[in-house]
């Protein structure tokens, strides 16, 4: 009896193993497509960043570290010495600053919004989620264009202010740092609200009640109960805003007008008018490194949370 | 749901106003953009009267037709391919015993979400330039379809996987106990339950492909203008409300697909 049982168990285990193996293969097509057209291209730009630029775009297959040197230095035309040129570095630092400011303001606006949404009755909550989800998935180019129409010299704000007689000349807002900052905030606000909401929605409000029963003030409840409990959502939201804001391309392209560059435009420029693909690849990889650092902190923080929990 | 909590305790002062402010900030610009698409005047910011003239001129425009056609070809193909492979991958990665490569496979699927778009764009451009140079391979519009498929996969994958994880495994076990072959159990039990997840995933894949600008702009060859690229070309010319009309059409398509995906997900939750 016991023998037949264990035989059956073995048979079942074997069958399960076979299905398990077959099922693993199901992931293959997706992995192959992303592997060839997603991962391989990243490896190619790693190689390209160590090659020489061809005069009309593309690369020459000669090893060179010029791309990385050019990131910080410029070769003097007369005496061939390397001059420290921080132009690119400044653009990177500026983009970093833009991304940080965007993340902080989005958090300050997004957290109260997400909390308010999570405390609505379920029916109302669904409407709020849909209303935030729509801009989340709407065309970024079109949304940026909408901002442009408002802040142009002959745009709505200037027209209104001049109509009211408050100003005589339009205030220049388009193609300034302000325009880029505004555009980034507008673009990425939903990216902050949604992850915060999904974290706050799961919050056990009995804890809020308990804190309240123990004479905690509203502010104390917020800072000592709600915010610590929603920390994973806060970190996820910050990451979802910071990474795309750091690599933003459309926003500075349209609202910065090619005057105030961010990393995204800088990289694209090397593949267009700049005709220096290796430099563009090196710049892209340096951006990727920054993103990986941000992700590393995210993974470290969240895995720490799980262990403690 | 008799809920004894009072709303009172949970409320934080000022949060309501910030929430309403956020909603206004998000919607006022796009609503203004939409309103001006009905302007009869030829200025983007000066109102003259209500009319549908710019929709007419947009819809009759040859370039717009070509761009719309390209967009539909690319988005539909990318959606179909990515949804199929994402469905297979989701099954292959949830209905298995955990194995060593699983976290790595999961990372690969999600890679397009973590890499900034501009990096994917230049990497894809370099890749296609390389295979064109080295092997003379150029898939024409297929280049764009492949590029779009890559970043559509994770978007299609997420809702399908979520649906598979929520699913009651006892149903599949019951089918197996009743001598259903694995294929039968999948075809008659798993797949019908999975359909909402697949549709939701397909809707998301379609939106991200339909709206993509950055990657398309860098990878597109001559004559491969999509609707977002068409809008970009228009921005650099003197603008008329025709651009508002086209933008409005794009927004409405996004809103339609988001709502569909959202409603499917909501029904699941009930």
TrEMBL record, chain A:
It is found in: Cell membrane. It holds the Pfam family BPD_transp_1. Its main location: membrane. It is a multi-pass membrane protein. CDD domains: TM_PBP2. The keyword Heme does not apply. The keyword Membrane applies. InterPro entries: MetI-like, MetI-like_sf. The chain crosses the membrane at residues 25-51, 89-115, 127-151, 178-200, 221-243, 249-268, 280-299. GO terms for cellular component: plasma membrane. Keywords: Cell membrane, Membrane, Transmembrane, Transmembrane helix, Transport. It comes from the Bacteria. One of its GO terms (biological process) is transmembrane transport. Gene3D superfamilies: MetI-like (1.10.3720.10). Residues 92-298 form the ABC transmembrane type-1 domain. Belongs to the binding-protein-dependent transport system permease family. CysTW subfamily. This is Binding-protein-dependent transport systems inner membrane component. It comes from Mesorhizobium amorphae CCNWGS0123.
TrEMBL record, chain B:
InterPro entries: Bact_Polyamine_Transport, MetI-like, MetI-like_sf. It holds the Pfam family BPD_transp_1. It is a multi-pass membrane protein. This is Spermidine/putrescine transport system permease protein PotC. The lineage of its organism: Bacteria, Pseudomonadati, Pseudomonadota, Alphaproteobacteria, Hyphomicrobiales. It is found in: Cell inner membrane; Cell membrane. It comes from the Bacteria. The chain crosses the membrane at residues 18-38, 72-92, 104-131, 137-157, 189-210, 243-265. Residues 68-264 form the ABC transmembrane type-1 domain. GO terms for biological process: transmembrane transport. Belongs to the binding-protein-dependent transport system permease family. CysTW subfamily. Keywords: Cell inner membrane, Cell membrane, Membrane, Transmembrane, Transmembrane helix, Transport. Required for the activity of the bacterial periplasmic transport system of putrescine and spermidine.
């Amino acid at each position: 009896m016991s023998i037949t049982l264990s035989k059956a168990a073995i048979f079942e285990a074997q069958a399960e193993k076979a299905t398990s193996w077959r099922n693993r293969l199901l992931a293959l097509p997706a992995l192959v497509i992303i592997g060839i057209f997603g991962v391989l291209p990243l490896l190619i730009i790693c190689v390209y960043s160590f090659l020489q630029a061809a005069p009309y775009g593309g690369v020459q297959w000669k090893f060179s570290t010029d791309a990385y040197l050019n990131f910080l230095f410029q070769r003097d035309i007369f005496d061939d010495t390397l001059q420290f040129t921080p132009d690119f570095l400044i653009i990177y630092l500026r983009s970093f600053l833009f991304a940080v400011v965007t993340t902080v303001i989005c958090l300050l606006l997004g957290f109260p919004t997400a909390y308010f949404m999570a405390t609505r009755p379920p029916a109302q909550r669904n409407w709020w989620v849909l209303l935030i989800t729509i801009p989340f998935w709407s065309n970024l180019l079109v949304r940026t264009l909408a901002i442009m129409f408002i802040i142009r010299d002959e745009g709505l704000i200037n027209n209104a202010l001049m109509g009211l007689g408050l100003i005589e000349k339009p205030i220049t807002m388009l193609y300034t740092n302000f325009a880029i900052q505004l555009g980034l905030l507008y673009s990425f606000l939903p990216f902050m609200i949604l992850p915060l909401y999904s974290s706050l929605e799961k919050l056990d409000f009995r804890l809020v009640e308990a804190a309240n029963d123990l004479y905690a003030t509203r502010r104390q409840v917020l800072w000592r109960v709600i915010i610590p409990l929603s920390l994973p959502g806060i970190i996820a939201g910050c990451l979802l805003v910071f990474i795309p804001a750091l690599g933003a391309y459309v926003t500075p392209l349209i609202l910065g007008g090619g005057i105030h560059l961010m990393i995204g435009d800088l990289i694209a420029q090397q593949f267009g008018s700049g005709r220096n693909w290796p430099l563009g690849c090196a710049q892209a990889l340096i951006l990727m490194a920054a993103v990986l650092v941000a992700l590393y902190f995210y993974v470290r923080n969240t895995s720490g949370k799980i262990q403690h929990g | 749901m008799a809920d004894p909590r009072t709303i009172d305790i949970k409320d934080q002062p000022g949060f309501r106003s910030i929430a309403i402010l956020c909603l206004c900030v998000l919607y006022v610009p796009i609503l203004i953009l939409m309103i001006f698409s009905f302007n009869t005047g030829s200025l983007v910011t000066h109102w003259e009267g209500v009319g549908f003239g710019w929709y007419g001129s947009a819809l009759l425009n040859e370039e717009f037709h070509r761009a719309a056609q390209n967009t539909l070809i690319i988005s539909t193909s990318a959606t179909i391919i990515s949804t199929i492979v994402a469905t297979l991958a989701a099954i292959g990665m949830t209905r298995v015993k955990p194995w060593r490569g699983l976290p790595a496979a999961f990372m690969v699927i999600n890679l397009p979400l973590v890499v900034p778009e501009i990096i994917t764009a230049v990497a894809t451009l370099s890749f296609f330039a390389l295979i064109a140079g080295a092997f003379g391979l150029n898939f024409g519009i297929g280049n764009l379809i492949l590029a779009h498929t890559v970043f559509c996969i994770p978007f299609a994958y997420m809702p399908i996987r979520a649906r598979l994880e929520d699913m009651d495994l006892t149903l599949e076990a019951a089918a197996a106990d009743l001598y259903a072959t694995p294929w039968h159990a999948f075809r008659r039990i798993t797949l019908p339950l999975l359909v909402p997840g697949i549709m939701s995933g397909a809707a998301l894949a379609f939106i991200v492909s339909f709206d993509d600008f950055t990657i398309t702009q860098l990878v597109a060859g001559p004559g491969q203008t999509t609707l977002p690229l068409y809008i970009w070309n228009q921005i650099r010319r003197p603008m008329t409300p025709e651009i508002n009309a086209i933008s409005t059409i794009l927004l409405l398509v996004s809103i339609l697909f988001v709502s569909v995906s959202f409603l499917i997900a909501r029904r699941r939750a009930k």
